[in-house]
Amino acid sequence: MWLVAYGAATSAGPTSTHLWNQLARGANSSCPIPLQLLKNKPDVLPDYRIHLRLDLPVTLTHRQRLLHLLQEAWSEVCGKISPQDFHARMGIIFTSTKGFAEDFVWKSDSFVDGLTPLLHDFIKEQKLAPQETLVLSEACSSVAAAVTMAEEWLNLEMVDHVLVLSCDSIGEFVIRGFHSLHALTPRSQAQPFDKERLGLQLGEAAAVLLLSKKIPGPSMISAKICCEGVAATRPDRHGRSLQTALSQVIGDKALPVLIIAHGTGTVINDVTEDSVFQNIYSQKSAPPPSVTSLKWSIGHTLAVSCALDIIAAQECLTHGRAFALAQTQTVDETFRSNYLLKTWEKPLSAVLVSSLGFGGVHGGVYLQRSPDV
Amino acid sequence: MFNLTQWQHPLETLPTSPPEWASLVERWYQLDAPSYLLCQSYWESKSKLTAPPDLILLNSPQTSFVTDRAFCQTLSPSKFVHTLPNVRSSALLQLLEWRGPLFSFVDEKAKILKYAENVLNKTPVSRIWVLQVMEQPVLKVDWCVYEKKNTH
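Above: the input entities. Below: the structure tokens describing the complete assembly.
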């Protein structure tokens, strides 16, 4: 299937161009946590930094922020292709993790459905008429799962086009949650794959991907997920499920020279990814891949993160350029892939995206430049 | 063509003594109620399950709301790790010693069943488990086990 069009609203700005320019500049958009976000519990947190759209008022509810960010990402897609071109037989897969719950989770004792109404409001506001809709919640691999599901929908001819919508906002729930896991870096910068990496920063974002077998796009895209039951928050130490997902999505296609890694900057995740990359490339007697990631620039955007990795991968294919891990100073000496500390330029034909998620859901996405477009 | 077998398991209270499968999963005592129930219901249903699934579809229409509330009250990391609906499958997969595609939905059961039947009818997939977890007013899991007729 083709990746036809996409949009991304991140802390870098309202479009994927803002994201790409920020990555290419080696800049990051982190800020101190606004006090308004931490109003439910008195416990003082360390001086963590997060990635927010500072041009949006902090008085917006999380629901309003999510809809605003989704609207921006959707507008970018509509600027590239008219919705009339994919309106017929279109399906929507919607993903989010916890952002939707921030407005009520601290107060309500009975179940509040915050997720499906969010999708329904978006559909109503944009006057869409999808033939199928599904809401997926698959942690930080949600979009890898959604793209896998979209491919199935198209193969089964349930629909002709699929919109993958993802959004997450950052509030007290996830900040205190990741704090409790000691997963947030107390430093001003996140440093994936650095020998002194201490953890991640969180970021809000929304993204829209338009996938189709009937409308050509700049790349062919496919995805696979593989789930395992090892532990809730860490992958198998040998990364067996990630390796399965990546190997399945590569199949008999050429090994890409560039990987966009999940790259959280946590000690264990980065080790797992490096180990898997080494296994896959050495088994095929290929040189180690070049690896980069983007969470150092816009934070870990949870359900949206794999969508942004896909968009960054497409931008690398378009520009023939890979951006650096701009905040990583010294790569962990035990790692064997080629972690990019400087940008490089060369024509690219394919990029691999690697994705890890809580609960043992791991995914791989393969983008191959379309020769005909 | 396929066979569909369905049953339901409720859980009134979380036991405090170790279950029979305790040694087969990591820190059983930290599981939230849906995770525990998925394991216990599998353990009690093993005789009905002829073979491992090719695909698991987990549906949690009420997300992980009850566990979310427990985290708000305790700020405990052991609660936070279960505040995503897909995480409740992790202990079950340990018990099954299974790796493969599992999709975690927050949606209507009818849509998930329709998708499962589409996959069975049009792809080589032979066995699909559809598991739906509800937490309020009563904690329960619905099992729908699909099997293609020609797989035996």
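Note for the figure: The helical segments of chain B are 33-45, 65-74, 77-80, 90-96, 109-122.
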